[in-house]
Design brief:
about 70 residues, three-stranded antiparallel sheet
Length: about 70
């Protein structure tokens, strides 16, 4: 059975902003379906899309952002 995710759920899952995801869905850059006036995301389709987007040997899910040290290197 298909698990449909809302914008809030997909934003939390992908760790991305709603406006970014809205633009991607609207422009066809990610799998999404518009049902009535709302967008829905098929979790299996998103997982497959992530695997296609990521380099081999990675999980496909975005990880934490790399932190940079604010100290001057000596």
């Amino acid at each position: 059975m298909t698990e449909w995710l809302t914008f809030d759920e997909i934003a939390a899952y992908l760790k991305r902003g709603r406006s970014t995801l809205y633009k991607m869905a609207r422009n066809g850059r990610m799998p999404a379906s518009k049902i009535g006036c709302t967008w829905r995301f098929d979790r299996d389709a998103i997982d497959g899309w992530l695997r296609q987007q990521s380099p081999p040997g990675t999980s496909g899910k975005p990880g934490p952002k790399e932190r940079r040290s604010r100290r001057n290197a000596r």
